[in-house]
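Lab meeting, action items carried over

1. Structure of the three-component assembly. Owner: GW. Status: complete.
Input record:
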Amino acid sequence: MPELPEVETIRLGLQKYLVGHRIVNVQVRAPKLFQGNPEDVIGAKVKDIRRVGKGLIIDLDNGFSMAIHIKLTGQLIYRGDETKNVQVSKEKVGQVPSNATHVIFTLDKKAVLYYNDRRRFGWIKVLATDQVGNLPFFREMGPEPPVAKEMEGKALTLEKFKEILTKSNTAVKPLIMDQKKIGGIGNIYANDALFMAGIDPRRKANTLTAKEMEALYKAILFVMEKSFKYGGASELNFVNALGQEGEYQNHALVYGKEGEKCPKDQTVIKKFFLGGRGTYMCSYHQK
DNA sequence: AGTATCCTGGAA
DNA sequence: TTCCAGGATACT
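Predicted assembly:
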């Protein structure tokens, strides 16, 4: 999934519906995805939901936490009395549990939390709350664009952003997607932000002018805020904590639009690979 | 810096 | 049947 706006969307949903519930039982259907002892979470009450980059942390009231990364196809879907009448987007995600459901948390008050993950790339790690920060993924997370509030990690300021770019002579797109440099940006928003800022994704980061770096910084914030307002991008599998899809995919600028017209004129958007990732750009408006 | 790898399913 | 996918990591 899921980049910062999508993970933050899930976090907000879990904050609203999951916090306060006690975990009554845990059924692990795919042991590989669930690391740690399920017994450590059973009987505990959910205290808080945090997000660091694209990672989620569910804090419990017994000193343990669950660190979660949903990678490309993970879903955390809550079902309870208060969500009974919620319209679920499509049948592909409407039915839980499904054959993509790998962990089932039975909660008190007749509620359930499902972890679905079609491709099984994600993970759930149970560990002491004070050890979460020691996981390399969280420890090495770079500062994050201040898109949605509730900043758990360090906020990425324009000055810091400029410093990161100036110090790197690698291509700008892979750089801004490097979670150790900047947290939360993935392929969709990297593509769209670079288009919006008029910058060729292959440009070496340290060749950008101050003006270009500022334009890119603002574009990153803009496209992510926009996506957050649309409820995230459900290009593949993303759904929020209630199983509903977002709408950003219907408002993307260049991502996934190979062969289509540039949003600004008739130029055809081209696709190529950069750093192993599909890259979309308008060669007329991005230099 | 580029490529393989963990997986599954939808599309070409 | 082959290729591709919002990620991250461990290799060459």
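2. GW to write a short summary for the group page. Key points so far: Helices of chain A lie at 4-17, 91-94, 136-139, 158-166, 172-176, 187-197, 210-229. The longest helix of chain A spans residues 210-229.
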